[in-house]
Amino acid sequence: xxxxxxxxxxxxxxxxxxxxxxxxxxxxxxxxxxxxxxxxxxxxxxxxxxxxxxxxxxxxxxxxxxxxxxxxxxxxxxxxxxxxxxxxxxxxxxxxxxxxxxxxxxxxxxxxxxxxxxxxxxxxxxxxxxxxxxxxxxxxxxxxxxxxxxxxxxxxxxxxxxxxxxxxxxxxxxxxxxxxxxxxxxxxxxxxxxxxxxxxxxxxxxxxxxxxxxxxxxxxxxxxxxxxxxxxxxxxxxxxxxxxxxxxxxxxxxxxxxxxxxxxxxxxxxxxxxxxxxxxxxxxxxxxxxxxxxxxxxxxxxxxxxxxxxxxxxxxxxxxxxxxxxxxxxxxxxxxxxxxxxxxxxxxxxxxxxxxxxxxxxxxxxxxxxxxxxxxxxxxxxxxxxxxxxxxxxxxxxxxxxxxxxxxxxxxxxxxxxxxxxxxxxxxxxxxxxxxxxxxxxxxxxxxxxxxxxxxxxxxxxxxxxxxxxxxxx
Length: 474
Ligand code: ARG
Description:
Number of helices: 19
Helix content: 55-70%
Number of strands: 4
Mean pLDDT: 96
Number of domains: 3
Bound molecules: arginine
Shape: elongated
Strand content: under 5%
């Protein structure tokens, strides 16, 4: 019979069992579910709601069930619907009727909300750590490329030269915001809903704060209706994840472009590329492409979750079971992508000469000629027009600005002198942008040192919080 079979006169239609069961995917929550149950049963005994001996028996039983599930020896069934009832059933099989005391003062509604929060806070710590590893790889490449110049682009047209280090540090900044957002969301995830019961609280004199403390929560969800209805923390995570995968996808796109014969700016290590079944010469940046592609499923999960929740009356509705697969898939997708990206970036070969050639054979120093004239008191708008004509002349005569003779320069402006040949060199152009956040070498080094400090803060955060979320079997 079902754990809830008392008021039924017939067995459930098999298709209904199959359709409504969540065990296929929520078995991922097993260890968190049991963590929560251990804390709950400890509290039940402390509050004299059940005898201490019973609580001890239940705890031993739960640990055996946990081991069996981990070892793949437990039979998890659709007839028992979800992880919560499967664990309870396994417990009763293990220790007998006393196992039935575990669910005193608790509902699956507050239990599942608890499991989701325990799972997610653990995932957040891991993802922050993986993001910081990727930042480390990007900073490594930045340090190795403090003199590597490539064209910076707008509209994917060469615009102004920048240091490759500067380009890498732009991504470090994006991932820093991602880390901040995840850290910022943590306190909202880290609240205990347990004790809300089905929706209204419970008649037993439970101690919600004691449960929260045992599980290292920062506090409880105040309102019992909200505690069982709230999935904002899932939406928030999916939104944060969407930004992370969007950043990874933009980086992926650049890697794909840079690896092409048209750019030849980088070569990804063989270990991170794949071949073609037909064309023997191919080496494809599949990992980058796939990460770019997987942004679709992560955004989909965000919209899916928002849509599922929209219009749900409080409190629990079965619709909410749909919160799991998208969240699990998002966590797995991010973990997979980040774990690959860090070593793929570290091992990437940067083709400095090709990058430099792309800068030299171009007009990305044109702004500097205009700025040069402005420094000689020509209004910027006029300087812009003069340089526009010089560029047009170069294009028509198949030259670049640095190929012009002094006489040619003078045709455009008498203000131009010999020092222009120094001013227009890519190195000078880059280092002239010596403002906070600019691409001058010293400014990029500044960014690297700020980033390294923040990286240390993150490493500390990760070790503190990794300990906090690890309450397993305490
Ligand atoms: N499997 C359910 C879920 O994931 C657990 C909560 C079920 N509660 C209920 N009253 N049917 O949402």
